[in-house]
Structure formats: C-alpha cells, structure tokens
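Field notebook, page 199. I keep forgetting to write these up properly, so this time I am using the form the group agreed on. The chain and the ligand, iron/sulfur cluster, are recorded exactly as supplied. Prediction of the bound pose follows.
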Amino acid sequence: MFDFTTVEKNLKARGYAVRVYATLKEAADYLDGALDNVTVGIGGSATVKASGLYDRLSRHNTVIWHWMQEPAAQARRNAMDTAAYLTSVNALAESGEMVSIDGAGNRISSMLFGHEKIYFLVGRNKITPTYEDAIWRARNVAAPKRAQQLNAKTPCALEGNRCYDCKSPERICRGMVTLWSPMSSMEAEVLLIDEELGL
Ligand code: SF4
C-alpha cells in the first residue's frame, strides 16, 4: 500500500479529519453511510464520477451535480448551497497543501465557503513531494489532461502535455486555489485512497 503516513500526519496537523482507504469502493461505502437525508453538491471530478456516488447518494439524499443535471449553470449555483460537498483536488503536497484549478469557479468556490462539511477524495497519484510540485502538477499535468478531454483549442491540448499559460478563449484554468488548512467556516475530511484516480 502507498505510504500515506507523512501526508496523513501533516493533514491532521493542519486540522483535517483524515481517513485512508485501499479502494475507491471502500471510500464510497463510507460516504454512502455517512451522508443520509441531506443536500449534497458535487464538483467537477473524475474521481467522484468513478466512485458511483451520484447514483448511490441520490437514493437517500438530494444530490446536485452539473455533470449530471441540466441546465448545468443552474446546477452549479444550486450545488453551492448544499450541506455537504464532494470534490477532489488537482494535487496534494505531502506537507498538506491542496491545490486546485478551475475554469467556471464553482468547485474552488465551494472549497472556500458555503457548506457545513466538505469531503476531498484524493487518489495516491495526486500526492506530490512538495507544495511547489503540487502547483506544478496542477498546472502541467491535471489542467492539460482536462483540456485534452474537453477537446479544447488550447496549446496544452493541441501541442503538448504542459501549460503554456495561454490566452485562449477556451482556456480552462482561470483560477487556482491553495488550501493551507480547512476553512474555519466548515468541517473538512480528506479521504486518501490507494488507487490512481482522476486527472
Ligand atoms: S493556461 Fe492554457 S495552456 Fe495552460 S493548462 Fe490552462 S488551458 Fe492549457
């Protein structure tokens, strides 16, 4: 199993609750039990999508996710006012900083304010040795992969797997948030998962 010891210790020191799972399925089982009869918002996340939690939680919660509901713009707004929020991050430094990039802003906004509790689902591939590496990963690995998925007309999607800090109208990364600690306005739990998940 991946050695989560250092990152777990540092996340706890920063004020996060932390759980470690061998598989995404086990993490999803936990969340399916922990969240019942509440409103749940979900940010754009391949990890959450792979978990199957949208369907599972929708059976006994009110779940809002712009990847699954139309109009997406309204779903984005509604998801910002839910009790619980599920998301991943683009990178997590072993020292505990979490880095995330966004285009529309709903996901990184929800990391900062508006919920009673936020859950971060983080696969082992998101973990980097340092904070600087986390920023580099978010900008040069996660964002270009997402641009390629979306067939964006951006240099990272068309020319290569790095960020060109483009000025393209289709630029997908328009803001970046670092969480040094959980926001004081909401509880935060990090689920560390020993699988390669998301971008
Ligand atoms: S700024 Fe442009 S080139 Fe860099 S990752 Fe974002 S979309 Fe790609």
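OBSERVATIONS:
- The helical segments are 5-14, 24-34, 46-51, 53-58, 72-79, 106-112, 131-149, 155-158.
- The CA atoms of residues 73 and 142 lie 23 Å apart.
FOLLOW-UP: compare against the apo run.
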